[in-house]
Design a protein that fits this description.
The structure holds three protein chains of three kinds. In chain A, 74% of the residues lie in helices and 0% in strands. By secondary structure, chain A is mainly α. In chain A, helix 3 runs antiparallel to helix 4 and helix 6 crosses helix 9. Chain A starts with a helix and ends in a 40-residue tail after the last helix. By secondary structure, chain B is of the alpha/beta class. Chain B has ten helices and eight strands. In chain B, the strands form three sheets. A four-stranded parallel β-sheet of chain B has the order 2-1-3-4, sandwiched between helices. Chain C has one domain: Rossmann fold, CATH 3.40.50.300. The longest helix of chain C has 16 residues. By secondary structure, chain C is an alpha/beta fold. Classes of the chains: A mainly alpha, B alpha/beta, C alpha/beta.
């Protein structure tokens, strides 16, 4: 029994555990996509990746202290601490940022591995933390995810114009009197919260894909910030849905085990490649067709296309020639 | 400023109001998600449909659970076994197919004693509503050693007397779920109990042929606690001193084992079927003892695949005893 | 010749100000007054401290001795009415933001936290964009404009906040003639309305042309006064530390910084 498109849409609702997994992935995919846009604009992908590594020991410590229920608090505490630490580090700019982050992320991660390896059955715990176990999320997990992702969306929506300004022109933001550090902290905390929320479902290793790929693909497809944000959220959610369904159907029909989290990531990457191909095809077709007047307001520039001065537009001819000599 | 000049610009038509708020879209999606969640909570799992072909649907976790279930149930049950041969039961992650099987199962047969730590999540996620049989019920558990101290040792099946209790638990569970067929289950049980007793006597006799001071067991990890207790062997130490089958050994721990091995003068070191034999080889060479690995390795955690020497419980236990006796005699 | 503002108060007063990052003084003992509606050029070689002075006027770098008074207040307090125009080439050309959105950014402070830009904000932003002659490019992505056009957009962003003091950091660097004209015209409009303007630049001809006063800087001040009095070969040579100074065909001095 192979699945038709219609089946793909209805199957999640036939099994309660699938519905729960789907809701979790939709919540995460949507928020991660939105956060990813800010990560992209502010060029924080490496820091976001570093955060996923540093959250890991928090997960382990929480688990060692109070089992499954300790994972979220542990991750939350360490996630917020490291987000604050990284923000402070970036502000001082004494050591090359990348190197410092690399040292911290590997150090934290190693602490996590050392702690978890003291347990028996540590490989299954490790796999769960790193790659998630979305098929067994509980209702409580979903509520937690909804609260956290809701908080992040509210925060980002409230701060969106200031975050935009800081990403675009931090100098002007500072000159206007905004505390750039505080805004960076808000964004870094948002990233940390998304990572923490995603640990259960997709794990700390794969969440970075959920954050970065939808936004990157959306950016390929549009130049307008609002469209990019919506596309990123939709793409994140759609990938969660399709990834879940593909891994489900393959397991049920063919007995082949595909880890859900990893399948979602593969769908994300496939989607990105599709966006890339679409962009290339569009660029090629534009180049072969005779170009309309440059400067036409309706044509957005494409990523990768040379952005340089548009052809001088007629309406701009100055009233007199530019003087280079003295004017007395 | 002294410069004066004109700059003409054409008025551009302004198009405000292109705001389908991204925020509203997200809110709508969240609202949809919450609605779905409520629907999901409302619907229940578990199959109350008619049994497939009239057979009892059984989901068994371990290979032993599967084997026992097939013996007791015979043709009256369909058994879905979650953990395949040579897979570490600690490490297991349920697949969608497994969760579906659980959802529609009538009986779930588990080992218990902490072996399946992943089980509770899977059971509650699937919505299983049938009868749960815990094979460890009624078995007196010994404590784990080394890193597992303080927790029970779950490898209860290696003592045939425990196996008797385990299959009796299964029979009770099957009879409760399918009273009409209880007599058949009872007969299957009786036959198997006889076989288990025969196994027990055989093993005891074989081990008695090993000289007393050679009755020393070194294996990959402490999976044979109940076996050594039953038959009077001494467990010298495990090569990997915890239940974790893929942990790496520190240099000091290796030296400890080697010292112990040399001190006791054991003749052979055993590697288990579900583990790569390289670690056993290394220690065996260091300590100057024979290493029994590969095809001859012991079935510790898992039964073997179909067609192998340990495909059933009875075969696996006999094989283990044969290998141990041959190496130590 | 543009009329001075009616208020008569000084937009900017530098009173023997020394500005430092930590222990190291970046700029020492600068003095001068910029009344409303007047324009001052900051001239000096790279590393002279022009950008530092601008940052100090914005209150971002501490004044360790002397004083800087902006619109009668301490620099940090006056920020709401001070506009800043950085160099456009420091900005990411791929950023997915439109020209209109960039100009609207100038209104954010006024709009405040959380609230969305309203119709009035958009109207003011549109007017500002019109002042620099780019209203017809409002919907396009910022990065598709030329360097000079982008600089104009940044000026429009600053104008949208209705500043009483405007600071421009090397706004004419690499800008084409058309955009240069547009910038100058917009600045002229602003000063006519009473805004004081401070421009750091290398372009001596432009300073001569467009500014009421010139401040020569190289870690400390060499002169502050009208171009005729300050843009002399001796002072320029002293400021630029012996860099080549030559006389052009029309008596305009050109220095290579």
């Amino acid at each position: 029994m192979s699945a038709s498109l219609g089946t793909l849409l209805t199957v999640p609702f036939e099994r309660p555990y699938l519905t729960r997994a789907l809701i979790e992935l939709l919540l995460l995919g949507g928020v991660a996509g939105i956060v990813g846009v800010f990560v992209l604009l502010r060029r924080l992908a490496f820091l976001a990746d570093a955060l996923t590594h540093t959250v890991f020991p928090g997960v382990v410590i929480g688990f060692l202290v109070s089992g499954q229920h300790g994972i979220f608090p542990g991750a939350l505490v360490i996630g917020c601490l490291t987000a604050t630490l990284f923000t402070g580090l970036a502000a001082t700019r004494r050591v090359a940022e990348d190197a410092t982050l690399a040292i911290l992320l590997t150090g934290f991660f190693a602490v996590g591995v050392v702690l978890v390896s003291r347990r028996s059955s540590y490989t299954s715990d490790l796999t769960a933390f790193l790659f998630g176990r979305v098929l067994t999320v509980s209702d409580g997990d979903i509520v937690t995810t909804a609260v956290v992702t809701g908080a992040v969306v509210v925060l980002l929506a409230a701060l969106r114009k200031e975050l935009l300004l800081v990403a675009f022109d931090p100098q002007a933001a500072q000159a206007a009197g905004y505390r750039v550090i505080a805004l960076d902290l808000a964004l870094n905390l948002s990233i940390a919260l998304v990572v923490v929320a995603a640990v259960r479902a997709v794990g700390t290793v794969l969440v970075i894909a959920l954050i970065v790929v939808p936004a990157a693909a959306a950016r390929l497809l549009s130049d307008r910030l609002l469209v990019v944000t919506v596309l990123a959220a939709v793409f994140g959610m759609a990938s969660g849905w399709i990834g879940l369904l593909v891994s489900y159907q393959v397991s049920v029909d063919h007995g082949i085990r595909l880890a859900t989290g990893a399948t979602v990531v593969l769908v994300l990457v496939a989607g990105y490649l599709l966006a890339l191909a679409a962009t290339a095809a569009r660029a090629r077709s534009r180049r072969t067709a005779p170009d309309a007047l440059a400067g036409s307001a309706t044509r957005p520039a494409l990523a990768g296309e040379a952005t340089g001065p548009a052809a001088p537009s007629a309406p701009e001819a100055p009233a007199r020639a530019a003087p280079r000599g003295p004017v007395r | 400023m002294r410069y004066r000049g004109d700059v003409r610009s054409s008025p551009a038509p302004d198009n405000p109001g292109r705001r389908a708020r991204g925020g509203r879209l997200t809110a709508a999606v969240l609202g949809l998600a919450v609605t779905l969640a409520l629907t999901a909570c409302g619907s229940s799992g578990g199959g109350s449909e008619a049994r497939a072909g009239g057979k009892l649907r059984v989901v068994a976790t371990t290979t032993q659970a599967g084997d026992f279930s097939r013996v007791i149930g015979g043709g009256l049950v369909t058994v879905t076994q979650l953990i395949k041969p040579n897979v570490d039961p600690h490490d297991y992650e349920p697949s969608p197919a497994d969760l579906n099987a659980l959802a529609s199962a009538d009986v779930l047969v588990v080992n218990g004693a902490g072996l399946e730590s992943w089980l509770d999540d899977a059971v509650s996620a699937s919505g299983f509503e049938g009868t749960r049989v815990v094979m460890a019920d009624g078995v007196s558990l010994r404590e784990g050693t080394g890193a597992e101290a303080g927790k029970p040792d779950p490898h209860i099946w290696h003592d045939p007397r425990n196996a008797r209790i385990m299959v009796s638990d299964i029979e009770k569970g099957f009879a409760a779920a399918d009273p009409a067929d209880a007599p058949v289950f009872g007969r299957n049980l009786a036959g198997y109990l006889t076989a288990l007793d025969a196994l027990d006597r055989r093993d005891a006799a074989e081990i008695a042929t090993i000289p007393a001071r050679q009755r020393l067991l070194v294996t990959n990890h402490d999976a044979f606690g109940y076996y050594t207790a039953r038959y009077g062997l001494t467990y010298v130490g495990s090569i990997i001193p915890s239940f974790d089958t893929s942990a790496e050994l520190s240099g000091k721990a290796i030296q400890n084992i080697v010292t112990k091995i040399r001190a006791t003068g054991v003749k052979a070191v055993f590697s288990e079927s579900s583990l790569p034999p390289k670690t056993a080889d290394a220690i065996g060479q260091e300590a100057g003892v024979a290493v029994i690995a590969g095809e001859n390795s012991l079935y510790a955690d898992s039964l073997g695949p179909a067609g192998s020497a340990g495909a059933t419980y009875l075969n696996a236990e006999e094989h283990n005893t044969d290998v141990i006796v041959k190496a130590l005699r | 010749m543009s009329p001075s503002s009616a208020t008569g108060a000084d937009a900017l007063v530098l009173a023997d100000a020394t500005v430092a990052y930590g222990r190291v003084a970046a700029l020492e003992r600068v003095s001068g007054r910029v009344p409303a509606g007047r324009t001052v050029a900051l001239i000096g070689p790279n590393g002279a401290g022009k950008s530092t002075l601008i940052k100090a006027i914005l209150g971002l770098v501490p004044v360790v001795s002397g004083a800087i008074t902006v619109l009668g207040q301490a620099p940090a307090k006056a920020r709401r009415e001070v506009g800043y125009v950085p160099q456009a080439d420091t900005l990411d050309a791929d950023f997915p933001v439109s020209v209109a959105q960039v100009v609207l950014m100038g209104r954010y402070r006024r709009i405040g936290w959380v609230r969305r830009p309203g119709a009035e904000d958009r109207a003011v932003a549109a007017a500002a964009l019109d002042t620099v002659g780019l209203a017809h490019r409002a919907k396009e992505r910022f990065g598709t404009l030329s360097g000079g056009q982008r600089q104009r957009v940044l000026l429009a962003r600053a104008i949208a906040a209705s500043p009483r003091l405007l600071l421009l950091d090397e706004p004419f660097n690499g800008v084409d003639a058309v955009s240069q004209d547009a910038l100058l015209a917009a600045l002229a409009k602003l000063t006519a309305g009473g805004t004081a303007v401070v421009i750091s630049t290398h372009d001596l001809a432009l300073a001569h042309l467009a500014c009421d006063d010139v401040c020569l800087l190289n870690r400390h001040q060499f002169a502050f006064g009208p171009p005729a009095a300050t843009l002399t070969p001796e002072l320029l040579r002293a400021t630029y530390g012996g860099a080549a100074v030559e006389l052009g065909a029309h008596g305009v001095l050109v220095a290579r910084p």
